[in-house]
Amino acid sequence: MDPQLIRDYFHRFMYQPKDREYPDLCQLPDLNEQTLLENLRARFTAGHIYTYVGSILIAVNPFKFHPIYNPKYVKLYQNRRLGPELPPHIFAVADAAYHCMLKERRNQCIVISGESGSGKTESTNFLLHHLTALSQKGSHGSGVEQ
Hints:
By secondary structure, the protein is mainly α.
């Protein structure tokens, strides 16, 4: 085995900056309970309430208003794939489900779960707001009427 390859591997995974936050927990070089919680804490402290785990979205209730749900964000997340292109957001999940429904012509399901007070109702409201914007006729959507 190439010694340089081994050094590069260990350097990449063992010497990550401690203050780095990952928008997708799958990117964590060492995924365990401590690194997961530290990453969520760092993102929350930085004002990032959403984090992906692959195609799953974790939302941490900020218990305050964040200006990330206005029409600018509705347009920003339209026709975008989940992934590193844009920061994690409930609109990205809604958009992915909506376009998968149109493309595959199959029902889609989004599960929102959490403890009491975790923000499920607010998340559902934002999700429905985005789906409504996507389904309206005109430049914002395809005009799904069913």
